[in-house]
Amino acid sequence: MKILQDYDLATLNTFGISARAKFLTEVGSLAELEELFTLPEFKQNKKIFLGSGSNVLFTKDFEGLVILNKLKGIKILKAGAEVGKDFVLIKAMGGEVWHNLVIFAVDRGYWGIENLSLIPGTVGAAPMQNIGAYGAELANVLENVESIEIATGNKRIFTKEECELGYRDSIFKNKLKNKYFISAITLKLSKKEKKNISYKILSDHIEKNKIQIERSKDISNAVCQIRRSKLPDPKVIGNAGSFFKNVFVEDAKIKEMLSIYPHMPYFKENGMTKIPAGWLIEQSGWKGKRIGNVGVHEKQALVIVNHGGANGAEIKNLAEQIVASVLAKFGLELIPEVNLI
Ligand SMILES: Cc1cc2nc3c(=O)[nH]c(=O)nc-3n(C[C@H](O)[C@H](O)[C@H](O)COP(=O)(O)OP(=O)(O)OC[C@H]3O[C@@H](n4cnc5c(N)ncnc54)[C@H](O)[C@@H]3O)c2cc1C
Question: Where is the FAD-binding PCMH-type domain (predicted)?
Answer without folding.
Answer: 16-192
